[in-house]
Amino acid sequence: MQLNKFIRYSVLVVGLSLYSTSCKDYLDVNQSPNAVVDAPIEQLLSSSTVSIGFFAGSDLHRYSSLLAQQFSGQGQGATTQTQEFDRYNIQGSDLNNVWNFAYATILSDLELIIQKAASENSPHYAGVAKVLKAYMYQLMVDAWGNVPYTEALKFTSNTAPGFDNGEAIYEDLNRMLDQAILDLNATASVKSPGTNSTIYTGAYGTSKARWIKLANTLKLRMYLHQSKKDRAGAVQDITTLINSGATFMDANADNFQMSFINEARRQNPIHQFELDRANQFFPAHTLVDLMNQRSDPRRSRYFTPFPFTRPFETATFTGAKTGDAPSFKYSRMHTYLRGDTTNANAVTPQADGSIRNTDYTYNGTAAVRMLTFAEYNFMRAEAAVYGAPGVAQDFFQAGIRASMTAVGVPTALIDAYVAANGTLAGAEQDQVRRIIEEKYIANYGVIMESWSDWRRTGYPAINFPVNALTAFTPRSLFYPQSEIDLNPNAPAQKADMSERVFWDVQ
Question: Are the C-beta atoms of residues 482 and 159 closer than 8 Å to each other?
């Protein structure tokens, strides 16, 4: 694996430093000779893709997975931060870091790539950066609603950007993705991405098609998000996109994901959190119970059993519930999110059937998955139920198969599961429920999307925490308190987290 495939945070280039003005005189005492004042476009892309991979497995992923009840912040003993988040005690100050990371590091680097690509006649780089920028802004709108957009990423020329309407941002992201595809298809480009990208790495002749598929699949995701607000308009947009001849993900090899390596601080961030903050997260009962009802064979890769027994294929799995008494008597996250283990046969359970956080040694190389071929199929299935092109059941079964194949489930078990659980029947809402439930299982570990699906459809049915600090399940996040305090053009802080993003109409 190439050394330059993983760039440490210490070498991430902050956009502000690249665009600060300095005297050209080599004797300028105000200019440090050791300061980084520019970076090649290749390094900026490495930094951006690494940062996106870490972002997608970090704070915003944890918040959305708690709210969707794929994770539980059960904790052990004294009250922990994740226990508080699990009962909806999320404050604006908790969101400062994730917001700053998104804007000051990821989006600023992507904007620099776009600008440098224009000046260096390298549209292939611009195309990749625009796809990634659209992806990041889709997450930002879905989490917060209105966010800085048209006035953002101006560096020193505007340090207090206003906030744009989320719906207007979505509309512009579609235009950005169209332009990205044109850039990616440009016949001439002085430079083209290669192994310096940690996502779709390799020769541009191979990765180009995957970036284009991602752009179209991301457009499909955004159109589907808006189906709650305007069903007919969403179906029309999806139909037009499909009939345009657009290419979409057509295999697990097209998954938008980033892999990690087994070195300290370069491992999967979900796994790293488990090492740094032991016993903060357990699989949530909503997800585990849904899979138990179907004897889902993915459980043996998703979770460890509780009580711990072998073989996993016939074991019992138990999820944690918000408000439960402190305990270790639950399943734990396993190889799908943490990477392969090197000591599976050495694990010995405690007397109560539980295992310790350190009993397994994981290598941390599991990918962080951000948009997958399985999700694409479930989106097409739901859209087909609403009237868009395609056969809903065919896409539904393809989504199940794609997920199980990615997990490593044997073909015979996949066939048996599809035979038992792969039929769509009943009214439209019954079919949508089945699609979203399977999508929810497949999207274990995917940032934001299961929470967004619940806000759109009401599925899967999640259980309101008995110790919740609100009378509702949050529908958006507070604005970061640092932005409210330091940006005079920021809106007033939300009264609470019941405020809905534009597509989440009542």
Answer: no
**Cα torsion at 247, 251, 253, 256 (round to 10°)?**
60
Q: Which of 277, 433, 387, 269 lies closest to 339, judged by CA?
A: 269
Closest CA to 87 of 308, 254, 406, 320: 320
**Domain ranges for the chain:** 3-259, 269-346, 373-442
Please check whether residue 306 is in contact with residue 316, taking contact to mean a CB–CB distance below 8 angstroms: yes
The CATH topology of domain 3-259 is 1.25.40
Predicted local confidence at residue 8, as pLDDT: 39
Rounded to an integer, the average pLDDT of 184-212 is: 96
Q: How far apart are the C-alpha atoms of 229 and 457, rounded to whole Å?
A: 11
Alpha carbon distance 279, 152 (integer Å) = 38
Query: What would the mean pLDDT of 418-425 be, rounded to a whole number?
Result: 98
What does the radius of gyration of the chain's CA atoms come to, in whole angstroms? Answer: 23
pLDDT tens for 344-355 read 888 999 999 999
Bridge partner residues of 256 (DSSP): 371
- 375 backbone dihedrals φ, ψ, rounded to 5°: -60, -40
Would strands 368-371 and 282-283 be described as parallel, antiparallel, or unpaired?
unpaired
- pLDDT tens-place string over residues 306-350: 999 999 989 999 999 988 888 899 999 999 999 999 888 889 999
Residue 187 burial class via C-beta count within 10 angstroms: exposed 0-12, middle 13-18, buried 19 and up? exposed
What distance lies between CA 154 and its chain's CA centroid? 26
**What mean pLDDT is predicted for residues 275-299?**
95
Distance CA 136, CA 53 (A): 11
282 token code pair = 């357990």
Average pLDDT of the segment spanning 422-448: 98
**Quick one: tokens of 494?**
């939300």
The CA distances from residue 166 to 170, 348, 402, 480, in Å, are 6, 51, 32, 17
CATH superfamily, with its number, for domain 373-442: SusD-like, tetratrico peptide repeats domain (1.20.120.840)
Portion of the chain with pLDDT greater than 90, in percent? 85
Cα separation, 304 vs 354, whole angstroms:
10
> Looking at the whole model, is its pTM more than 0.70?
yes
Residue 284 pairs in a beta bridge with: 320
Nearest to 88 by CA among 464, 458, 475, 470: 470
Mean pLDDT across the stretch 283-309?
Answer: 97
Answer for the pair 407, 365: CB distance below 8 angstroms, yes or no: no
Coil vs helix vs strand at 244: coil
Instruction: Give the single-character DSSP code of 426.
Output: S
How far apart CA 212 and CA 204 sit, in angstroms, is: 12
Q: CA geometry: angle at 54 spanning 52 and 60, to 5°?
A: 85
